[in-house]
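fyi for ur records
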Amino acid sequence: MVRVVVVDDEPMVCGFLRTILGSAADIEVVAEAHDGAAGVEAVLSHRPDVVLMDLRMPGMDGIAAIEQLARRVDAPPIVVLTTFDADQYVLRALRAGASGFLVKSTPPEDLIGLVRVAAEGHTVLSPAAARRLIAASTDGLSARDRARERVAQLTEREAEVLAGLGEGLSNAQIAARLYLSEATVKGYVSRMLDKLECANRTQAGLLAQEAGVVAP
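which gave:
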């Protein structure tokens, strides 16, 4: 079972998600919360496989909740729920440790599959929205310079693996491209995340695009 915690200040949204996800035999919404602080408590209590997190909520907002949870070594994938009218908040959430984001208008038939993808540890990003976010993240020259400084500490092979993450490739796809074993790529990814101080593959992929390792 894929166990999900939903954090949103609108009970109607929580009810909608519970109904849609509950229609799948392999997904269960184990808890819902209506602000960031309650969301953190729900995640720590229920240990879900995926968290769906709204950003703008009363009290502790979604970004602060993501930052708290992402510090934990056992943090589950956190997928941002957005109305897609505030790119800067989504970008901040990804940098804070979110694993991706879903637009609240995502068709119900797609939502179940995307939650399964997130539970497997893959990034969940809408392609069109991702392009807008990357464009926003690379507007400032100083931000690109800082990203390039961080990437410069990588070895040539690590930089090649980072490029694969920037393109959204899986470990298996990167391994095939570089003629390495999947286990070797997994090791490179782990060491690279430590070097770059990135919480997850999504953050590393964004950094690769900010640094110009791959095109947005």
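The two ends are 35 Å apart (CA to CA). thats all i got for now
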